[in-house]
Amino acid sequence: MTEKESGEAESVLQARKIEIEAILEQHPALRAVQQMEEMDRAREWYVRNADHLLSAMDALNHDDLGFRLFMMGNEVAWNDEDGTREFFVEMGRHWHNYVASAVTVADHMRELFKEQSEDLHAEYVQKIDELIKPHAVVAFVHRSRNVALHRGVFTMGAAFRFRKGKQRFDVYCDTGTMLNRYRSWWTPGAIQYMEQTSEVSLSKVVDEYAEVVDPLYQWYSDRFYAYHYPTLMGFETLAKEYRQICETLEPGELPPHDPEATFSHPDRPKPPPPRRPRNKSKSKKKPKPKQRKR
Q1: Which of 14, 217, 229, 234 yields a CA-CA distance of 20 to 30 A from 173?
Q2: Where does the record place the region Disordered (predicted)?
């Protein structure tokens, strides 16, 4: 190849490099990846706040406050002054953070699918109708965010319970108080949930809500990725060509490429789904190893 031909070939590569740069900067795959990352962060925030709520309740079984509550009897009211007010305030904070993060995930997912094609958005609406709307616990959790924010935290109490022969604490909301004082603030679905019982166990709400929404999150994770996989592969193909051009024009200009950093096919084995809130009161302890007799 003559020097002139070499220069012409380099010019063609430079022009193609600039063209690819412009395409990659505006590529729709970037928006899809951004949306998936935003959903992952919202989901992790929800799980973390649920864990904090459950951990705060579980702490009653191990600290001095739990012992004092035990000495007071089976039930402790909000207006008690013997070291429990701080606990109720803290529980109110954890509860508000939990319901706020749960609503944030739902809002993120709804807005995400508004940006999608009509057929994918229709699938999402169908999944909401199938998986979410039949369950009143979702209406209760989502509406709790507004009620807790605008009307103050609910009346709460710590009740001493016996489960499987072990003494454990739980935190509950008195539904009679919430319905009598704030009925106009609740949606029909939330009222339906509260009318099923005289008190709402917060740990039970966390468990029930996770059981309902987890299948929706898993569907979103699988379907959204599979739907955008062709776009992601288009981006990857262009990025590969761009790297090859850079290596031809200026070897070593780009950092070393990780061959594992690729978009895997949707049909390949997937990583474990996002972890769900863990109710420590239900976790089983590992049996201690038996000691051999000497």
Answers
A1: 217
A2: 250-294
For 29, 210, 228, 244, 259, the CA distances from 234, given in Å and listed in that order, are 8, 35, 10, 16, 17
CA gyration radius, the chain: 27
Q: Is 28 helix (H, G, I), strand (E, B) or coil?
A: helix
CB 169 within 8 A of CB 57: yes
Cα distance between residue 75 and residue 161, in whole Å: 10
The vertex-134 CA angle with 129 and 137, nearest 5°, equals: 120
Would 161 be classed as within a structural domain?
A: yes
pLDDT digits (tens, 9 = 90+) for 22-41: 999 999 999 999 999 999 99
Residue 68 has pLDDT above 60, yes or no: yes
Domain assignment present for residue 282? The answer is no
Predicted pLDDT at 149: 75
What is the rounded distance in angstroms from the CA atom of residue 158 to the CA atom of residue 60? 9
The alpha carbon of residue 229 and the mean position of all alpha carbons in its chain are separated, in whole angstroms, by 23
* Residues contacting 154, CB < 8 A, separation 6+: 92, 95, 144, 147, 148, 173, 174, 177, 178
Task: Find where tokens 């012409």 sit.
Answer: 8
Number of folded domains in the chain? 1
| pLDDT of 74 strictly over 80 | no
Express each pLDDT in 142-192 by its tens digit. 999 988 777 666 656 666 554 443 556 778 888 888 888 788 889 999 999
Residue (of 204, 153, 170) closest to 66 by Cα position? 170
Distance between CA atoms of residues 240 and 248, nearest Å = 12
